[in-house]
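Re: weekly structure request thread

Next one in the queue (227 aa):
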Amino acid sequence: MSQQNSVNAVDRVVFFDDFPFDAGATLTLPWTVTDVSAAGAPTNDFVADQANGVFRLTLAADNELETLALTFGDHLMIDPTLNPRFKARVHLNHDGAGTQFSADQRVAIGLCSTYNATWDSVAEHAWFRIEGANNNVLIEGDDGTSDIDDIDSGLDYSDSTWHTYEVFIDADQTAWFTFDGQPAGSTAITALASTNLMQPIIAIQKDAGTEAPALTVDYVQVTWDRV
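Done, posted below.
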């Protein structure tokens, strides 16, 4: 099935969040933020007085391992065999690191199974990955057996700029990726044979360093065929 083909007009489950609440409001279930930090105090919150409403994940300026991961808290409900489509509009700010991350910072945006703070240990996923001192937009897929990492999409992101990330897994369980509406990568990621349920993920992580980069999320939409 080609990336351009549309899903058949069937009854679809639709999840959509525009993050419309004021700063300090409680994040609405099923969303959960996983916070991994020691001395620092990363923050996650809605942002007041922003057009459309946004939610922000910000690491702390402490030289330590830190992760903030926005997921469904391992409440897995998205069947990868039912044509799931993930779409999110996300803004990345490096906070003083220049136009690129430092070598030990990374972002993941897409779909995954049960969360693991060691991202390469997440058993099943189809996501975008941004990592290290470059502006490359990478794509990755894993079904628990086949692990396809660090495929350069040929597209670059810009610091402090809104970008739209989309992942579609078709009936053949081939994962297709688009970045700002452009096909990401010359080929799709095939052979994602897992039937394990998934969840959305938008996450930011650093191994060390005193920068406090932030991910701001405008919206997340996920749809899939109803069982």
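The first strand starts at residue 12 and ends at 17. The radius of gyration is 17 Å.
Next request, please.
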